[in-house]
Specification:
This protein is an alpha/beta fold and 471 residues long. Helix content is 37%, strand content 22%. Helix 6 packs across helix 8 and helix 13 packs antiparallel against helix 14. Flavin-adenine dinucleotide binds next to helix 1, strand 3, strand 9 and helix 10.
Length: 471
């Protein structure tokens, strides 16, 4: 029987208390629904499965917009470390700072995954209409019966949960999505990269200060692979090594302490000096998988909606997976505000608006891997960036660099950023083709070309306000 919430709206079930599922539950409760949120792991506020590891994420405009709409950005703000640009570490130890944007506010923020999840869970817990159930795993979805088979991991007992409807926020390996494998319902395709990742760590200096510049994301681009570092509030950095899984230069070949020392001394000597117990940590840390999930559909009529990574996991090179998942929640809230609990209609509208955006950022994230590990070393990269910034200064209503559209403009869709980005890329390549420095570029002609080829930014903005007061 459908349980009614205080506002008279029905009850819904959410699988997965990650970033997406928890923010979604908060939003659904605000919309008057009674929410049961199921998570397979223990409550991370009580027991942290990743204790001792400081995994961090870049939070940008879309994610910030969602947290503001939910009224919880103020609680997240103290956890944030601003990053204004990239510090590129060359092989000879020299470094170059490349700003992400031009305006003061054009920065992204490093935040620990656990810290952010704790704020979201605290907020969900404070809402009467949300019941959180930890150590409860979904083990399969039965489409004809519209039920999820669940297992209580405390006593192994089995029970069922109805799709009234069901929101599957159970991440990239979604058991709900995979229960539909072999049918045409979602048509999900999982494409794995042949590169994986491992995390490392640079501690604070003895006096607690950062050992590298703290207001930047650090990159050591080395062609086929790269190392990156994001600052944490405690003065430390979390590093991620992205490298092929197999082959001559690969995680498989880094199988002894000697091999690891040789590899780091050759490619990342300045970073190697700062990483304690490098070989032990690299060998002991798990190898993460990277991949893209694309679906043709995200909903099973009005019964199930895939959301967040379960619908559209992307590779992390644009730092947008979580930002996209949070954007999903804002968009869904807008649609529910207008169309209520007419779920088949709500889910169809959500898919029709967001699926192309998810595909666009999936592509741009793959592009960015090449840019971060390779193109960023090309002198033309800096020149094109300089020209792009100049055009933005001259034509703020027409030209915004693609990176900025994705990271700093929640009111420009990913699809629009990709489409305009393509036109802009051609323009920047054309006008820098024969130049070695900005003096050699005909900036006036480039400006005129931008005016001719791009429609005004105001014509393409979308409303990404949920329309619900955050109070
Ligand atoms: C190396 C790396 C770096 C990244 N960096 C960034 C970044 O800088 N910026 C950014 O925006 N994004 C980044 N991302 C992507 C981001 O982590 C994800 O997009 C985001 O966490 C997705 O949130 P989610 O809630 O959809 O999924 P998840 O965070 O995966 O949460 C899913 C939840 O469901 C639970 N669950 C799973 N299966 C079941 C089950 N059967 N039953 C019950 N519960 C279940 C899980 O335990 C988990 O709590 C990065 C990803 C990686 C791998």
């Amino acid at each position: 029987m459908t349980r009614l919430s205080a506002s008279g709206r029905g009850s819904v079930n959410v699988i997965g208390a990650g970033q997406c599922g928890t923010l979604l539950s908060i939003m659904l409760a605000r919309q008057g629904f009674s929410v049961d949120l199921y998570e397979r792991y223990e409550d991370p506020r009580v027991y942290d499965a990743e204790a001792g590891r400081s995994i961090n994420l870049a939070l940008a405009a879309r994610g910030i917009n969602a947290l503001k709409q939910a009224g919880i950005f103020e609680l997240v703000e103290p956890l944030l470390v601003p990053m204004r640009g990239r510090v590129v570490h060359q092989l000879d130890g020299s470094t170059e700072f490349l700003a992400y944007g031009q305006a003061e506010h054009e920065q992204i923020y490093s935040v620990t995954r656990l810290g952010l999840n704790k704020v979201l869970l605290d907020c969900a817990e404070s809402i009467d209409a949300i019941r959180m159930h930890f150590k409860q795993a979904a083990i399969g979805y039965d489409a004809p019966d519209r039920t999820v088979h669940m297992q209580n991991l405390d006593d192994d007992s089995l029970y069922q949960v109805e799709a009234t409807p069901l929101f599957a926020a159970d991440g990239a390996g979604s058991i709900i999505r995979r229960s539909f494998d072999g049918s045409d319902t979602f048509g999900g395709i999982e494409t794995l990269l042949r590169h994986g990742y491992k995390e490392l760590w640079i501690p604070p200096a003895p006096d607690g200060s950062f050992q590298m510049r703290s207001d930047a994301l650090h990159i050591w681009p080395r062609g086929g692979f790269m190392l990156i570092a994001l600052p944490n509030p405690g003065g430390d950095f979390t590093l991620t090594l992205f490298l092929a899984n197999e082959g001559a230069q690969s995680f498989a070949s880094l199988d002894t302490a000697d091999a690891i020392h040789r590899f780091f001394d050759e490619h990342f000597p300045d970073a190697a000096e700062l990483i304690p117990s490098l070989p032990q940590i690299l060998m002991n840390n798990p190898l993460g998988v990277l991949g893209t999930i694309r679906c043709r559909h995200w909903h099973d009529q009005g019964n199930v909606l895939l959301i967040g990574d379960s619908a559209h996991a992307i590779v992390p090179f644009h730092g947008q997976g979580m930002n996209l998942a949070f954007e999903d929640v804002v968009l869904l809230e807008q649609i529910i505000s207008r169309h209520g609990d007419d779920w088949p209609n709500v889910f169809a509208r959500f898919e029709s608006e967001q699926l192309a955006n998810a595909n666009a950022i999936a592509d741009m994230a793959l592009d960015n891997y090449i840019e971060m590990r390779d193109t960023v070393r090309d002198p033309k990269f800096a020149l094109r960036k300089e020209l792009a910034f100049l055009l933005e200064q001259r034509l703020p209503d027409v030209f915004i660099p693609r990176y900025s559209m994705v990271m700093f403009h929640a009111d420009i869709t990913y699809l629009m950023a990709q489409q305009r980005g393509e036109i802009q890329r051609a323009l920047l390549e054309e006008f820098t083709a024969d130049a070695d420095s900005i003096e050699g570029v005909d900036v006036d002609a480039a400006e005129q070309a931008a005016r001719d080829r791009l429609e005004p930014i105001d014509d393409i903005r979308v409303n990404r306000s949920s329309g619900v007061s955050a109070a």
